Amino acid sequence: MGMVYIYGVLVTIPSVICAGLILPKFLGNLERPTPSFLKADQPVDMNNLPSFGVSILVPLIPAIIMISTTIANIWLVKDTPAWEVVNFIGSSPIAMFIAMVVAFVLFGTDVVMTCSG
């Protein structure tokens, strides 16, 4: 799974460059109205939002853990206690669980519960 993330980064970098820098020059300033189902029902309190860094870090935690596990497996000897611990923490469900716990701590349970319904 970690190799998929590593290859994905190699594909993502040129894609972001094309979509963020090159494509807007060809499209120009298009005016597109926002559909009503995408508009907020209640105004958002801009002073109570998490920082940009935290908002980016939390979804990337599983990817960072799994990539770190893949890189650590280069040096770790298979079937040793260290290898077992690293691969347990780097497994997809555990990495997602760690990210969820971090999200609860950073965003608070009230924010997470309001986002889920």
TrEMBL record:
Q: Which domain of life is it from?
A: Bacteria
Give the matching Pfam families. GntP_permease (PF02447)
Q: Where are the transmembrane segments?
A: 6-28, 49-76, 88-107
Q: What is the organism field in this record? A: Escherichia coli
Per UniProt, what is one GO molecular function of this protein? gluconate transmembrane transporter activity
Q: What is this protein called?
A: High-affinity gluconate transporter
Q: Which InterPro entries match?
A: Glcn_transporter
Q: Does the keyword Transmembrane apply?
A: yes
PANTHER family assigned: GNT FAMILY GLUCONATE TRANSPORTER, HIGH-AFFINITY GLUCONATE TRANSPORTER
Name a GO CC annotation attached to this entry: plasma membrane
Keywords of the record, alphabetical order, are: Membrane, Transmembrane, Transmembrane helix
